[in-house]
Structure formats: structure tokens, C-alpha cells
Amino acid sequence: MEPMFLPGVENNPQPSAYLDSIRMMQASGAExxxxxxxxxxxxxxxxxxxxxxxxxxxxxxxxxPGVRELIAAYTSARNHCPF
Length: 83
Prior knowledge:
Helix content: 55-70%
Number of strands: 0
Largest sheet: none
Mean pLDDT: 88
Strand content: under 5%
Order of helices and strands: HHHHH
């Protein structure tokens, strides 16, 4: 995986569930959302963003969660960003 544009963030994670997830994905060689580095860097500052993301993608709405995930994946692919 390519390094992100914020090496100070990527190289200074704090202990958290996100750091655990990053390490697990790195050990398996799998790609993962690089925003996890931001979450691991300042978990307390990203709590609202994580909650917002879950709400937008998975709570009841006019589009099914699967369609919302597909839109997010398509948008990420168009932006050359792993989803």
C-alpha cells in the first residue's frame, strides 16, 4: 500500500482499536482504508466522524446500506482511493 500524504499522522498512531485493526491488516497484507491512520492518530477527535460515517452508510434511509456502500466504493475508485 502506498503511504498516505500525512506521514506525521501515519507514523504516530496512538493505542486504539483502529491501531489494532491497522496492524492486523498490515500483517495479513490486505489493503485497508487509510483514514484509519487519522482515527488511530487522534481517536478522540475522530469519534464524531466515525459515528457520522456509520450513520450515513448503515442506518435506515431511502437507499439500502448495500447501495450506499457501492456508491462510496465507486466514488473512492474514481478518486484512486482504496475503499
